[in-house]
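Follow-up to my earlier ticket, as requested here are the two runs.
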Amino acid sequence: MNITTSSAAASRPVRAVTVHLWRGVGRRLARFRHRRRMRLAARHPDQLRTRIERARTIVFVCLGNIIRSAFAAQLLRSRLTARADVHVRSAGLATTPGNPADATAILCAQRFGVDLRAHRTHSLDRSDLEEADILLVMEVDHIVDLQRRFPEYLPKIYLFGCLTGSDPVDVADPLRRPPEVFAACFEQIDRGVRRILEIRSSVARDA
């Protein structure tokens, strides 16, 4: 091996580390920007409210589509029985299609009158974003990933926490946690779903 080849080989790990560090910095900056955008959306909710008022397709998104987004979608469906014009879906950013809901989630959901036994996972694809009027994601990191994959759909993507407070927080994944953590997670989701129903009800009253 000559000196030039040896130097090039030695520099590869350095370049790999540098690229990794820059990607980490970029992700942190993107997370900060989206967190700030969601804070503004929560404090000045006219745009978010309008999207929910006019929505004909609402898509909830989390990572695996076995707990949070599955519960949110089924909870909203169960409370929108008289509004057949609204289609509610859920999807996962990193899931295998066709899997059932998490067992603890199924049990906890029953306390809210929700049956997740028939749920099967769905992997988010471009058609979901095209058809959705609004996508409600559970974590800021999900917005970061969606912007990287589907930047053109960013205006219709919101953090679910925008519906539960002026300083929106993530709905943390309770996977492999105790049942009481699932319950707290589902209570947070229930508050957001009730806010969607309030917005939709105001449209019905004004119609």
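Run two:
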Amino acid sequence: MQIVRNESYVNSRVRIGNWTHIASLALLVVGFILSLLPNWLGFGKEESSGAIFGAYVAMIGALLLLNFGRGFTRRFGPRFRQDQLLVAGLRGLDNRHTLYNYAAPNLPDHVLVGPTGLYIFIPKFNSGRIQFDGRRWSRGSLGGALLRNIAEGGLGNPTTEVQRAMSQLADYLKKHGSEELIRGLEAKPVIVFTNPQAQLEVRNSPIQVVQIRELRSIFRRAKPVLSPEKVDALKAVIGREIEEP
């Protein structure tokens, strides 16, 4: 399997996350200093109120920035990046398949193109008991879910993420591809739980849901549905924004 990653895009997002974290820490320091100023300088009631209000604003701003930056580091940071786990889970696919990671801002993060079709992977690094009844996702007990949300990030709604990714890909191919390319083309979404400690209880899912150890099995009996010419055309469109090293 060939692996393609848009390094310039990933690195720019990592920098945004890093600088946002630095800014949030700076605001926390400002808020802490403002909270101490009334005692240090012997402010009167009016000045003290202003300083305390400024401290609260700075701390709230710091928390907002921290949450914003965490979205970038969890998605693009080397410690959390899901493409590394997907590559391991797909090991063994032949070189006719290409996995595109973070190919463009307006594409899904992980797209696989090969003779067996066009795939969108939605990886989730959540652990513990995860249930889906065909309509609603849940994570077992409320207390355990809250603790895992803090450590791993929230589960969200993978079904909604699939719908958004499918729409992104369709719009991108329609904009940059030919009518012949997209005619009859149907992407295959797969929700992949990459944490080995995930315990899935999935029923009546319209979307394929697998654990990372099961990912390779999707391709074992898959038959070719795309011609080599169509595969090459898809690769040219999806990889069009990736700079050559």
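The only thing I checked on run two: The chain has a mean pLDDT of 87. Let me know what else you need.
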